[in-house]
Amino acid sequence: MSTHFEIDVAKLTLSTRYQARKTPGQVSLSELADSIEAQGLLQNLVVTKGKKRGTYEVIAGGRRLQAMQTLIESGRWAKETTVWVTQVDNEQALEASITENVQREAMHPADEFEAFAALVEQGSSIEDVAARFGVSPAVVRRRLRLAQVAPELMQAYRNDELSLEALMAFTVNEDQALQLQVWQSLDQWSRNNSHAIRKGMTQGAITASSPVVQFVGLDAYHAAGGRSYQDLFAQDDGRGLYLEDVALLERLAIEKLQTVAADIEQEGWSWVEFKPAYDSEWMNFGRVYAQEGEYSPEQQSAIEVIDKSIQAIEAERDNLGDEEEDHVLWRRLEQEIEKLGAAREKIEIEAEVWTPATKAIAGAVVYVNSAGDVQISRGLIRPEDRQRASQLSKELGQSACLGSLPVPKTRPVHAERLVRQLSAHKVGIVAADLATKPTIALAVLVAQLARSVLGTGYFAYGGFGLGVKLKHEDLRGNAPDFKDSKAAKAMQELRSHWLNALPTNEQGELSDDVLAWALEQDTGTLLQLLAYCVAGTVQGIQFQDDTKPTELDRLAHTTGVDPAQWWTATAESYLGHVNKEQLVNVVTEVLGAESALPLAKMKKTDAVQQAQQLLADKPWVPTPLRIKTQTSH
């Protein structure tokens, strides 16, 4: 229940118990005081009983109270001035403060996080708070988790030293001491890097999406007493749940693998090893191969069915277009092909024949693969068995089906640390030399960028010794009509020009001779090719209207480009995608209200066509295409 009455300003104090807003608003107190003096108090202050008889604490409207106190202190208002207030019970005070502040000038998010936490501390359930403020319980839980970060981090957030995304990263683990430890360990550039923060906060833990977790199972891990914690801001794909007891997880995985390994041992192998993940040491093992066995009628029939299915899916995949839904279907078909291929490989393995001689010199390894499934590799030869395997191969000839043997271990001439040290010097020497040869540096840079932009397949990912990479935005994916635009055609013409000018191989693809070609060119040619390569890296796709200038606008101002010379408003490019009111606004802006008036009375399709005709030769572009100007302060 609430009551309304008039009271002296002198009897009001700013509440510290129930004031949700702790971060100052954007409007200065002097401006607010001027407004109240001119117009009076337009909205009641919300108060609750103070600790001292006859006084009241302002729980909503604290800045207005401070502004009025300023007016009284400066003599602009009389000391006996009274104002109207709305009183609420103490039990409802914090909730009223949150509601009033949310509905007026937006609270700082930090205030909101702490205010929601205070409501829960006073006895409200998460569901009750969610219902009162029209949000989901998940939103309330996230705000409560944010309210629990170390006070030093919350203050850094209030001071704009820490982004909200970075603050969310710190909530992965509720240990405030660890939060501060990670914060203090990061340099100023990494303190707003959410990836670096999460990495520091989750050291020693493993995500639920890990293959070994998929293999063991979350239920089994928790049943064994394993602890975990949840990143409330992560996607619900297993990457947001972290398992702390890695040793326990590995023990459970080994116990499961031990059962599989016991069955493999029954096959008669010389040895069997099992580990939760693939051991890179196994790469040094040699191999002995199985002999092909004959398929049973059932196996042969199954393989024929699989092969026909794969052929049908491949035909469907190869006939797909280039639309977004086609890309989605392509990925699904690829997954089906992989699944069928795995089934075929399983049948092939079942039909293999391992002779006693091969098993006598080889073993098998059992581990968890990247999909979280058990993987078995048979026929491996340990380095210490190299001589025995070689001797047996001579005795048995081809019957052992012996493949590669382990490379004998030899001590390297240079230790890894020394190799790194010397190669670092080599990098520095080449760099210092290149810095004095700008013509060669330009040629190498252009050659590497041309390889990235115009090359195909693996060749496009290589380089000529520079750590320079290009980033391209998906223009066609975001603008399906871009391929037919004037800009796209201009870039395609340039691409064709350079592919014709640069050296290619027999397949018509860019060849490795591009560096030799670049070294022979004059500076003007290299700069033209550099401009084309760099142009493809222009960034700036946005997802909502924004009046603030961006880096893309700064670049556009630098080049002096006029978008109206490159783009025209048509039904497909713009007019058919906005409502009729916007059509009228556009024509009014370009040609005046009189020309736009008939459109308001037309059907949408007719209005679109009429607007297209009226704007056909007019240099107009919508706001997302306009070059914004940086304002000065």
TrEMBL record:
<dbReference type="InterPro" id="IPR003115">
    <property type="entry name" value="ParB_N"/>
</dbReference>
<dbReference type="GO" id="GO:0003677">
    <property type="term" value="F:DNA binding"/>
</dbReference>
<dbReference type="Pfam" id="PF02195">
    <property type="entry name" value="ParB_N"/>
</dbReference>
<dbReference type="GO" id="GO:0007059">
    <property type="term" value="P:chromosome segregation"/>
</dbReference>
<keyword id="KW-0175">Coiled coil</keyword>
<feature type="coiled-coil region">
    <location>
        <begin position="303"/>
        <end position="350"/>
    </location>
</feature>
<feature type="domain" description="ParB-like N-terminal">
    <location>
        <begin position="5"/>
        <end position="102"/>
    </location>
</feature>
<comment type="similarity">
    <text>Belongs to the ParB family.</text>
</comment>
<dbReference type="InterPro" id="IPR050336">
    <property type="entry name" value="Chromosome_partition/occlusion"/>
</dbReference>
<dbReference type="GO" id="GO:0005694">
    <property type="term" value="C:chromosome"/>
</dbReference>
<dbReference type="InterPro" id="IPR036086">
    <property type="entry name" value="ParB/Sulfiredoxin_sf"/>
</dbReference>
<dbReference type="InterPro" id="IPR004437">
    <property type="entry name" value="ParB/RepB/Spo0J"/>
</dbReference>
<protein>
    <submittedName>
        <fullName>ParB/RepB/Spo0J family partition protein</fullName>
    </submittedName>
</protein>
